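ESCALATION

Customer reports they have been waiting on this structure for their group meeting. Please prioritize. Original submission:
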Amino acid sequence: MTDILCPWPYAAKPYIQFEFDVDRLRIYLTFRHPMDQSVTPATNLFTVRVDGVDKTPSTVAWKDFYRLTLVVLNIPAHPARVHCTYAGPSPNLRINWQKQYEPWWRILCNDVPLDWEHVLDVDVDNARVNVNGVLAQTTKTITTGIFPFILVDDCNILLLDCSGGDITINGLSGGVLGQVIFLAKLCAAVQDVTLVHNSGIPPQKFYLHAGGNETLTGEYGGWTFVCNGSHWYDISHARHV
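Update from on-call: job pushed to the front of the queue and completed.
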């Protein structure tokens, strides 16, 4: 079967990341559409600029239908800036429906940690990310006091240590649509941990099941809330007990 190559190149740019490994770089190019893996572009079509020095990849290989991997050797240290240039169009870099990618000039590559792909498996076809290992969320510890609100733009778990005295929380701030947060009481001390329902103080209020304040005293326990972008709604259980 003869290839029918479209004369008009495809203008969209890929998303590009780089990973430093001892003495080399792996450059990951992620395209918007499934690519034709029956052909592979030559190494000399790519220029990787590493801290101002231009280098040609030693290998180019397809990882899957959306991702192309370049390897650049003889990198002495973790670079501060990496750019990638493609000198297309070429019939060997094309979408499944045969459109060739047009050239791009020095796209800045995003730095990713070494072995990130062994931890995160991005399943593009099924729109999901699989985590290989333990998924740990950022925490913040709260101790004695009355809090008008607590900023949670950088965490998903609040650890409540009331061993030194009562804790009262009126609400939160900094939450975004779809964010889930867990509040966990760390001890069975006799001091209270109280959440205030529908307080007029915080930027983002708590809406608790029974429509009133809730307190844990002398026991472990906690709450789960989801944010609608404005306030926090108690989803700790199906109905108030």
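Sent to customer with the following note: The mean pLDDT is 87.
Escalation resolved.
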